[in-house]
Design goal:
Layout (H helix, E strand, L loop, with lengths): L4 H6 L21 H21 L3 H6 L5 H41 L2 E8 L2 E4 L3 E4 L9 E7 L5 H25 L6 H17 L4 E2 L2 E2 L1 H10 L1 H18 L9 H7 L7 H16 L3 H13 L6 H17 L4 H10 L8 H13 L3 H16 L5 H17 L3
Antiparallel strand pairs: 1-2, 1-4, 2-3, 5-6
Helix pairs in contact: 4-5, 4-6, 5-6, 5-7, 5-8, 7-8, 8-9, 8-10, 10-11, 11-12, 12-13, 12-14, 13-14, 14-15, 15-16
Length: 396
């Protein structure tokens, strides 16, 4: 039987010590189905009103016959022009939305790390790169993190609201301009209003969490919202190559101040574990790792594999329990997303058993696997920590 997370933590580290099982992974509800239902219902209502012309005022305001306007645009610019106008208006809407986040964030004490519109990513200072991950074509992202923890929830809300407000304001400005509505400006207004409304719904998708869900969290559960904002800052520090033990203590405290059944709890305590582990604060590290394991039902498959590897390394290197480390190693799939997770666990087990030569060979294997990762700050940090381990294994 799996103990509740609160009871598990009250009994020390039972999951870490293999006395209680790891909770099975569950996928949280996204709210995306509700969002789709709302849009489908709205479309059906508008279609019925159009067909029956009831109430007449609705048709007058919102359901104006657009066929003459559309035919006029077709005659002017043709199908290629209409297609180009659609794409241009869509990406301009994305750019305005993310710029709204940036301007609002900068005005309340956030730092902009990068700004992405579709596949184009703009990194500070003035570096342009191509993004090929999920949502590369259909969405944009502004990466900002707070500079201080002062009034963090309210400042975060201003930053989040900036995107939708920018969409609504620019749509109104275009409508008020004393100029005819072209295909480009018309599509821009439609996309802006639709995106602004869509993003204020509280939902989660494969591409991320909506602004509406973040706003709801900041309003109803400010501590949870501050945890999310603290994680933005800590993730930014890791991206900058800050070593785990040097992460901001102030933001770490914010990140672990609240616990619930969420992925943010796992992420926050995983960072706190790494910080304590490399500061040789073994008791604190064990507590944080136990929390990660207790709430790992919300972690991604890759993060769960990393936590199992951390558990094996901790048991072998800190508690000298090679037997428990072997059990954790068995939990890591041979086909793990990152092959070096098993290799580092095996190195720790060999070290705990006194086979330093074998451990060094495994660390070399780990290093080779890490070098296969595309070059970035995270990879560089992993390599620096691995070199430190090698030095500890064979001191001069």
């Amino acid at each position: 039987m799996i103990l509740p997370a609160t009871e598990t933590l009250a009994n020390g580290t039972p999951i870490l010590d293999r006395m209680a099982p790891l909770p099975p992974r569950t996928v949280p509800g996204s709210g995306l189905a509700v969002l789709l239902a709302v849009w489908v219902a709205a479309a059906i209502i508008l279609a019925v009103c159009w067909i029956f012309n009831r109430p007449p005022i609705l048709r007058q305001w919102f359901l104006t016959d657009l066929r003459p306007w559309f035919l006029d645009q077709w005659t002017r610019i043709g199908i290629i022009g209409l297609g180009a106008s659609t794409f241009a208006a869509f990406y301009l809407m994305l750019a305005v939305h993310e710029l709204g986040h940036v301007v609002a964030g900068l005005s309340v004490g956030f730092r902009c790390r990068s700004y992405r519109v579709g596949p184009l990513r703009f990194n500070h200072p003035l570096r342009v790169s191509l993004y090929r991950g999920p949502g590369a074509i259909v969405n944009g992202v502004a990466e900002l993190d707070p500079i201080t923890t002062n009034r963090l929830a309210w400042r975060g809300m201003a930053m989040v609201l900036g995107g939708a407000l920018a969409n609504f304001l620019t749509a109104v400005v275009v409508l008020l301009l004393p100029l005819p509505i072209t295909a480009f400006s018309g599509f821009f207004v439609v996309f802006s209003i639709a995106n602004g409304m869509n993003d204020l719904f509280p939902f989660e998708s494969r591409l991320g969490i909506s602004d509406g869900r973040r706003i709801w969290m900041l309003l109803r559960q400010p501590q949870h919202g501050e945890r999310w904002l603290a994680l933005l800052r800590l993730s930014g520090e890791l991206t900058d190559g800050v070593l785990p033990e040097s992460l901001s203590a102030e933001f770490l405290a914010k990140a672990i101040a609240v616990q619930d059944d969420s992925a943010d709890t796992v992420k926050a305590n995983a960072m706190a574990f790494s910080s304590a582990f490399y500061q040789q604060k073994d008791s604190e590290a064990a507590k944080r790792l136990e929390t990660c394991l207790a709430y790992s039902d919300r972690a991604t498959p890759a993060l769960r594999e990393a936590l199992k590897s951390d558990a094996a390394v901790y048991q072998a290197r800190r508690r000298k329990r090679a037997d428990l480390a072997v059990e954790w190693l068995a939990e890591i799939p041979v086909t793990a997303q990152y092959s070096w997770l098993r290799a580092r666990a095996e190195a720790a087990i060999l070290e705990a058993n006194g086979d330093f030569e074998g451990a060094m060979k495994k660390l070399v294997e780990t290093e080779t696997a890490i070098l296969a990762i595309p070059k970035n700050a995270h990879r560089d940090t992993l390599l620096r920590l691995l070199q430190r381990w090698k030095a500890e294994l064979c001191p001069a």
